[in-house]
Design brief:
about 180 residues
Amino acid sequence: MARQSDTKQRIMQTARELFAHQGVQQTSLQEIADRLGISKPALYYHFASREELVRSIVTPLLDDGEGFLARMEERHDVPPVELIEGFFDFHHRHRNDMMLLLTELTTLAELGLIDVVLSWRARLTRLVFGPEATLEQQARAVLAFGGMQDCTMQFPDTPVEELRAATVTAARAALGL
């Protein structure tokens, strides 16, 4: 059983690399199998389609993001700075897979992930400004949280603590905190 798990992880890692290099739609399952030195049927044993493979890569990201938001919503009194820092940490942890997704907007749309990201931003806005946020407050939240996501990808070589401090400060300013 551990062998299957190892093989599945190797497939996912190879797919990430090829997707990042040449795009999801331009990467065939045969290329992934060839790179790994396995047969295409062996790959199909683990993943029935490219879409299933992409989903397996992004599911941990989605589960982590959903878990973070659910924990924040349960508390009802989360200080905005804690929310901002936690959201930065989430994006920094998943920046490579986020970069992959953002370079493949068509794939994002096909998998229904754009709606997920937009709903997360709406939930974050409610956490910071409450259920009756004005249009300006909603715009501030989109700029702060969307910008934070972008910063984790735009500055990959910046030490994480330095990037975290700068990004959190900028997000607080955008939110008017």
